[in-house]
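Q: My collaborator sent me two sequences in one message, no labels, and asked for predicted structures for both. Can we handle them in order? The first one she listed is below.
A: Yes, handling them in the order given. First sequence, followed by its structure tokens:
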Amino acid sequence: DAAATAAPLVTRHSIAEARRRTTRLLLAEDNRTNQMVALAMLRKLGYADVDLAENGEQAVAKVAAQPYDLILMDCLMPLMDGYEATRELRRRGVETPIIAVTANAMAGDEERSLASGMNAHLPKPLIMQTLAAALEKWLPGGGEELPLDGP
């Protein structure tokens, strides 16, 4: 029976879900509570492969050791802050999208993030819909229209 052996139905939803399962994220955040909140949000959004860096030095070392699809970077961390870590990654030729995640919501903070080489700026506390939209926009393959009629 051909129907019984047919490939599973491929939909925009199933493709997006598969992409989330295979996406590698790095969360650079020094505050334990903020780590737990961000990790819970990412998991709820379907992102299970998330590594943690507790400061900018760890973030730079982790990116040097393996590739990531996207980096969520706290701006204010000990040893090396997110701005300095981003500048160092960009100096090394890393083109991975980096999203600032910061409590700094004053005028000029977003410009400072972008000037350091970050791609976007999310204020804390994180809001699930805002985080989801930023990930969709900046992850490779995100936001592109999928053909409805197949090949």
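Q: And the one she listed second?
A: Here it is, processed independently of the first:
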Amino acid sequence: MKKVLVLMLALMMTVTLFAGCQSSSDTEGDAATGDTLKVALLLPGTANDKGWNNEAYDGLMEIEELGCEVAYSEAVAASDYETVFRGYADQGYNIIFGHGSEFADAAKNVAPDYLDTMFLITSSDVVQEPNVAGVLNLNDQQGFIAGVVAALATETGKVGAIGGMEIPSIQSYITGFEQGVAYVDNGTVALTAFTGDFDDAAKLKDQAVVFIEDGADIIAHDADQAGLGVFEAVKGHEGVYAIGAVKDQYEENPEQTLTSATNQISLGMVAAVKEAMNGPLEAKVYHFGIAEGVIGLAPYHDCEDVLTDDEKQFVTDTMDKIAAGEIEIESAQAN
């Protein structure tokens, strides 16, 4: 009875999309059995947040195009992580993504009961034999390059970066940002803060305004949907620019969005599923950064003239050095 109730709760919280197509090629579906792979995704926020959750949803849609059967649950409360994991595992899902390091503990608790299911936690260095692995997008590199751009672009000598929840992935972004600012070595001061959540855009806007009033003219964020508050904060402040996160967020404020430090974890998700199609995944950390094309920088769009050509080249050269392993970045996660 308890198992039935758990499954019912999970189904109530699940939005399911069925692809159901079986390919004649061994590159689609489970290579070992010929069956269609079933892949599920747990999101901490809404799938249309124009950022972190939206990026994972896009990845799931690409996975569906591979011939997999897919499903997802959005805005999953922390108290329900284990219940939803179990619900999908009970339905026979082969791979379940928890989108963010906050899902790590729940996956580790559930995984021993479902040894035929692989639990993949994004933005995490979690590993637990035999069926929990981390899909680690290198947020430190994302923050570092945002910090480099900010330090090159500032006219006031002060820049800011705001994170959402103070979890390892966001801590890595913020420490990366600070290191990127320091790398430019032009005396720029980095102001940083955490708002404590990923949903409250008003709270993040208020923090950004505090930084602006303190003299910061470039404000970056890594705070999921709450990060949209930074684009509101810079409005009406001449010479002040936002740096977006995860996706190209230019459209949120075209005239004052300098660029976005992108984090296409969707590519890492697809790569992991493709590997699973050719054989079992390992309980290890799968790394994805600039070298793998997951971390990057969006175009400067309307703010093309904020940086000089030499400064843009410096940014490009820095990214190349990071990809080549020539720049060591300290992180809150195991890289």
